[in-house]
Predict the structure.
Amino acid sequence: MTARLPSWSEYLELLQPAGKLVDLTFDPQNRQLGAELYRQLLMNLSLGYFLYFQADADHPDWAPFLNSVFLLQPNPDDTYLLAPVRGDAVYRITGNRGTVRLLTFSTGAHMMGMADAPGRNFGYFDADALMLGPNGEMDVIFSAERPAGHQGNWLPLHPDAEFIMVRNRAYAWGEEREATLAIERVGATALKPRLAAEQIDQRIRELLGGFTQRLSRLWLNYQNAALKRGLINKIELADFGGAVPAQAYWQGIFRFAADEALILETALPARHRYWNVQLNDALWNAVEFIQRQSSLNGHQAHIDADGRFRAVISLEDPGVPNWLDPAGTLQGMIIGRWYEADALPIPTLHAVPFKELRRHLPPETPTVTTAERAEQLRTRRIGGQWRRRW
């Protein structure tokens, strides 16, 4: 006998427990924060649809992962692509490297939100280590073992691998060209089969009852652990499980009053391939970064005459180049990255009265006028949209 199709209301019941996540937020009674949590849950649903229904390991395709609308802690300089794979299969990626600062591939299992178990990272590969064509053409095989007789690019695929992730990392937004990539399973059947009712049911249940709340719970718990460590306006080096071995992270919780500003200050590594800093809100969402300057990287930032980087976090535009705009948020997390760096400086954060800000900055700190800020944001907005991948 064919199993009964569940009613739509039965599926929706699977979402009910997600509402209890409000108790894990910094302020469970805050109406604004609660509304933003509900928005985040809808965002997770949207992201999850791509991950659960777009492709499978036999007929892979790139799903947009994180990026500018899925804001649960992407790096603003990255656009991410994710494809499902199997560790016992052979995959071929073809296309063009583009001109982004970094193009990398990661393999792993238990992508965040898709399993209760902690994620596993197996391999991290820089496209610049591959043999490329004269115009950036790329052709690379991923498999457990190098195919017999294959003389071209080959990268190992762990037997337990479940995904390949691509990071397009841009420094000069809108000026650099992102990679154009296709993925296919070698030897797969030519036609992708229609999903059976049982498969659709299983994926809906996992998306609604698992992924949607699991992804938010992961990062809410992460933030709460940082709060318990006393990281308010303090910075520590962080470990994200070796997902990007060439990269060191630093993080802290920023908190200030509406009439204050926070000054972030740090030395820079003498040698590095990339660095950045970003603001996250109280739910670990990246603060809006297309329409606002809530992040800066080594290409965008102004460096002071003494070689140090200083940025200002404040509600009101402080009229300095390195304004990190929290978009009305008085508390959240700040994240930074040093990539292939010869040193790992730990920045400092300190609060000052907003009206006295200039006294605490070098006298040569430039003044950014209203018109200059508008042009700065326009350049950012256009460049950000040119590099978006839905």
User: Anything to note?
Assistant: The mean pLDDT is 96. The first strand starts at residue 63 and ends at 65. The chain is about 20% helix and 25% strand.
